[in-house]
Amino acid sequence: MTDQTPVLRLEGIVKTFPGVRALDGVSFDVRPGEVHALMGENGAGKSTLMKVLGGIHAPNEGQIFVGDEAVTMTSPKHAKAKGVVFIHQELSLADELTVAENIFLGELPLKGFGRVDWGKLYDDTNAILKTLNVGFDAKTRVGDLSIANQQMVEIGRALTVSPRAVIFDEPTASLTDSEKVVLFQVIAGLQEKGVGIIYISHRMEEIFKITDRISVLRDGQYRGTLLTAETNEDDVTKLMIGRSLDLSRSEATHELGDVALEVRGLACGSLFEDVSFKLHKGEVLGFYGLVGAGRTEIAETIFGLRTPSAGTILLNGEEVRITSPIDAVQRGISLVPEDRKDQGLVLGMNCRDNMTLPQVDDLTAGPFVSDGAEIAIFDQYRDKLDIRTPGWRQTVGNLSGGNQQKIVIGKWLSMRPNVLIVDEPTRGIDVGSKSEIHNLIRDLASQGYAVIVISSEMPEVLRVSDRIVAMFNGRIMRDFTAEEVTEDNLIQAISGISEKVA
Amino acid sequence: MTLNKQDIGRLLAKQGILIAFIVFMIGFALANQRFIAIDNIAGVIRSSAILGVMALGVTFVVIGGNLDLSVGSMMSFSTIVVLDLHDKIGPALAIPAMFALTLCLGAFIGFLVGYLKLNSLIVTLGMLSAIHGLTLTWSGGKNMDIADKAGTWFSVFGQDRIMGIPVPILIFALLAAVLTLLLSKTPFGRKVYAVGGNGQAATFSGIPRARVVFYTYLISAFCVAVAGLLQASRSLGSQNTVGQGLELEVLAAVILGGASLLGGSGTVFKTVIGVLILGFIQNGLLLVGLDFYVQYIVTWAIIILAVWLDVAAKRGRLWSPIA
After folding, report:
1. Interface of B with A (CB under 8 A)
2. How far apart are CA A436 and CA A453, in angstroms?
3. Which of A76, A400, B264, B323 is spaced 20 to 30 A from B74 at the CA atom?
């Protein structure tokens, strides 16, 4: 593997847009059989770089080499013909078509009179699926597959040519831990064949587990390449954000208050059952489990989006019936939803209007919304959460992921909730904002807020929670205090290995 | 800074309608001096008032993320009903009765689209036909005329002037002002934008999405009732098909004004601008000596242009190889 010609080499790539230097002299190479991480905060230029590689943007300066050949990519198809293929973060599959049709979309094998050669199509597809070692066949409808298997189809697409370099963009964003293992096996398989991999991710654990080298971008500039074996998270973070992060758990000692929320024997059809827990004021309760374990569904039930089939909910000791989000909002329950773009924000609306949306009925002077009252709330939470925006008139869709998430948190925090539920608080946002949000959640607890944090990321749950509820298959398996939890017993609990402890 | 091809594309995409409008206006003014005469301009505004009043209501529906194709046939219904009841129960009772019946139609559509969550295109297209049938049933297919045209005060809404200004213009302006306040200043208006911009996020914010959509159709029906009143009062007699085809002109005006068909954007003021653009272009076509029928073709072309520019403004250029 040493001293071979790189499969892909970038030299001094510059890309400017009116008023912005999106890429400013980016150079690095990918060697055969190497997994090369590309890291950087949101807006650092990763996506622009990928678009240059895929021929969507032409670079203003610089040169791309595939092997020894200098190439100017003109389209993703051209890039693919050159052996450079992309596995996108957002799946671009046609649900109604079969696996085979998706994999060979746009290049179906033909026989006479323009008819599709179905036999060859299915044979070729099954050959590819075999190398991926998956449990479905060429004729399966893509819409019937799990997200993880759909991702395998997306990878299968890349394998219709013999790729020289494969670029993975946040491939694990929607995968469970066990599904990740399968993905990593596929990547290892590609490595053995001498394919170079560019791996884009925010997740440090993965980066350190599977990559050989790490290249870092900041503000469009290439900041350097590190050997993974010789570096650590702190160094990479410093390179990415220009400072180091305090990742330790802030152990602010504070007294727990009364029980804010109690749930007894809650069930919702086949989604979850027999869910009971107590949440105190000043406490962060973490919900950890695999995707599909029922965590989000519990939150949605408490928030009135689903109707429970059994069980009771008590707020401040009083039994309540919550039949809609309107009820929940009135009773002081706030939910920062899982999907900030679809559920959390109206992207076309400005920052202030988004933030005050749930309480706009109360911010009135006469029949009209009071500008002053709204701006006061916006200013207060912009300062409190350190939201970086040019002003309240800014359209939310133009903010970075981290700032968008803070707007959603501000929106619900400004309701001064009795119970704040945060579902996947840091999904898809960069490490800098991530740690700010973690600190914020700890601060809220010390101010006496009762907080539930739902997360698929173990370090996150371990870092912010006072207690952790481990879920498996719609049931609470175990309830840990921060002192007794370890990575091992938590993994056992969410895999259904340990016995249920009442 | 010199303009390159991309900048021109972006400018056209963003301000294309306005630029096209200015070019049209200059062309018309050069072709016929009368086009910019005060009485012609007042005449255009006056004859746009009925369309304009309907467009104000549809603006709410469109911002809320839905369509209303039933307004044309609903306006025929209102006109026929108020004319018929005028001679039967007198104008003082006929007007509130007509408003009540029209609001019932709006409530029915609002129920289907809001609470039952049916597709608004299908529901209002169906209602276009159903209400037409209802109108014909009511009138027995005959034209409706007020018997004593000279002796009724009912003509004030469509024919009188107050301080020299035609009443339809006053009503249009007043309604536009009230609805501007409702849409841009009240919590309800904010919720309309939220529901149209992202219905799921609105639900997650504790906003009663179904109720908000329901109210947008009630507002639309109210505006249609006002338009029907103006129409009936102006002509004091009417065919069953008086509002036929207006739904498309109304939609054209709303889109011309810049409301997105996807919902979540637009304002009452912009719709008024859209109405005036449409009115002046149609008037200009007549003044340069083109056949009345040409305006149908031009209106259609304008709708297509407006929709194209709406999409182009979103992607920042006029044409894109990727959808």
Report:
1. 181, 185-187, 190-191, 193-194, 197-198, 200-208, 264-265
2. 15
3. B264
Same domain (yes/no): A19, A144: yes
Contacts (Cβ under 8 Å, ≥6 apart) of A105 = A94, A97, A157
C-alpha distance from residue B192 to each of A138, B121, B213 (Å): 46, 18, 8
CATH number at residue A102: 3.40.50.300
Residue A443, domain extent: 259-346+418-494
- Whether A132 is in a domain gets the answer yes
Q: Tell how strand B237-238 and strand B144-145 pair up.
A: antiparallel
What ipTM was assigned to the predicted interfaces of this complex? 0.86
Q: Which residues of B touch A348 (CB under 8 A)?
A: 197-198, 264-265
pLDDT, tens digit only, all 502 positions of chain A:
445 789 999 999 998 876 667 888 899 999 999 999 998 876 678 888 888 888 888 888 999 999 888 988 888 888 888 899 988 766 778 889 999 999 998 888 888 888 899 999 999 999 989 888 888 889 999 988 887 788 889 888 888 888 899 999 888 877 777 778 888 988 998 999 899 999 998 788 889 999 999 999 888 888 889 999 998 888 888 888 776 655 555 555 567 889 999 999 999 988 899 999 999 999 999 999 877 788 999 999 999 999 999 999 999 999 999 999 999 999 999 999 988 989 999 999 999 999 999 999 999 999 999 999 999 999 999 998 888 888 899 999 888 888 899 999 999 999 999 999 999 998 877 777 888 889 889 989 999 999 999 998 888 888 899 999 999 888 998 888 888 888 778 877 887 765 444 4
Tokens of A83: 């052996």
Same domain flag for A315 and A237 = no
**Overall domain count for chain B:** 1
Mutate to test the interface with B, among A78, A338, A360 (most CBs of B within 10 A): A360
Supply the DSSP symbol for A339. -
- Which residue segment(s) compose the domain that B179 sits in? 40-244
Interface test with B, best of A57, A303, A349 (most B CBs within 10 A): A349
**What's the number of domains chain A is made of?**
2
